[in-house]
Amino acid sequence: MNTGRAISGAHARVARFLLAVALVAPTALGAIPARGADSTAGEPTPATTGELIVGVEPNTSAAVALKAEAAGAEVSEVQRAAGFIVVQPPAGDSAAHFTDALAEIPGVRFAQPEHRVRASFTPNDPEFADQWNMQAVGASGAWDVQRGRGAVKVAIIDTGVDLLHPDLIGRIDTVHDKDFVDGDMVAQDVGSSELWGHGTHVAGIIAADIDNGRDVAGLGPGITILPIRVLDSKGWGEDSDLALGIRYAADQGVDVINVSIGGPNDSQVLLDAVNYAVSKGSLIVAASGNDPSKAYLDFPAAYPQVVAVGSVNVALARSNFSQYGDGLDFVAPGS
After folding, report:
1. Is 9 helix (H, G, I), strand (E, B) or coil?
2. H or E, element range at 70
3. Does residue 288 contact residue 308 with C-beta atoms inside 8 Å?
4. Model confidence, pTM
C-alpha cells in the first residue's frame, strides 16, 4: 500500500472527518435502498463511444472545431472552459487515423478516444444492524465527537441523488446540483423504476440522517452533499462528462470530490480535470475498481493526486472483487 501521498495542509482542519468519509464512501456496503435498482453485470458495453476528445490550447477551441469540421468531422461538443472539444471522425475514416490528422491542427494539445467509465459497486443492506462497515470504522464513537458540519461539502459524482429522499432532506445542495447527462441543473437519481440509484446509495453512506428510525445511518449526517450526475440509468458514462463533473465540483469550492466511478484507460482529459480540482483545493477520493483480475487501479484512482480506496470484507481481508496494486492508499469495508 502506498502511504507516500500527502494531503494538502489546507484540509488539516477537517482531514480526520473527511478521511473517515473517504474510507467508506466509495466502497462500503449498507446504504439507502434504491427503488428499481439493477446491475450492469454482463452487459456488453463498448470500451469507447466512437468519438474523439481533442484537447486544445487556450482560446483555440472555435478555430480547432472549424478545422476539424473542414476535415470531415462532426463536432458534438465544444467545452471552451475545460479546454476540449468532442468530435465524430468522418465516415469511413478510422479513429486512429483521424487522431493523427487532428494532431496536425494548430492549437491541438492531444487527441484521444472517448472512453466509457462505470459505477464501481452495488451496495445493499438497508438496516443499521447490518452496517458492519460503520461499526468497523468506529462510527458511533466518532458521532460523540463530531457528526459533520454543513460548511463541509462533499460532491458525489455519480448517477445523481434522489433529491427528495426523506433521509437526505436538508443535506443536499439543490441550488448548484448539475446533470451532465441530460444537460440541466437537476441531478435527480431515483425518479422512476428505470433509474439505477447508485448515487443515492453513496449519498446515504456519506450523509443519511441518524437516530431517526429510518433506513440507514450516514457517517457524516451533518455535512452537505452536492450531487453531480455523469452516469446514465445503467451506471455508464464517458470520461469527458466525468472530467466536466470534477471541474464543476471544484468550481463550487467543495472540500471532497467522491468518485465511485472508474475505468481501465488513462485519459488526458480526466487527468487535466484532476489537476484542476487539486489546484482549486479539493480532495479527490476514488474507488480502486471492481475487477479482481487486475493488479492495478482504475482511473482516476490510479492518479497519484487522488486518494485511492479499495474494499475489504467483514474479516477485514481484501474483497474478492476489489482491485489492488501500486497507489492504493486505503481500504474500507465494502463486502
Report:
1. helix
2. helix 61-70
3. yes
4. 0.80
Beta strands 307-312 and 330-333: pairing type? parallel
Answer whether residue 320 shows pLDDT above 90: no
Domain with 152, as residue range(s), is 9-43+118-333
Which of 83, 115, 147 represents a domain boundary (last residue)?
115
The C-alpha cell that represents 327 in the structure block: 497507489
Task: From 85, 115, 145, give the residue that closes a domain.
Answer: 115
Cα three-residue angle 278-280-283, rounded to 5 degrees: 45
94 assigned to some structural domain: yes
Mean pLDDT of the 12-39 span: 39
227 with 93, same domain: the answer is no
Confirm whether 37 is domain-assigned.
Answer: yes
Rounded CA-CA distance 201/25 in Å is 9
CATH code at position 286:
3.40.50.200
Which pLDDT tens digit goes with each residue over 243-278?
999 999 999 999 999 998 899 999 999 999 999 999
Cα distances (Å, whole numbers) of residue 134 to 29, 87, 137, 158: 9, 45, 5, 22
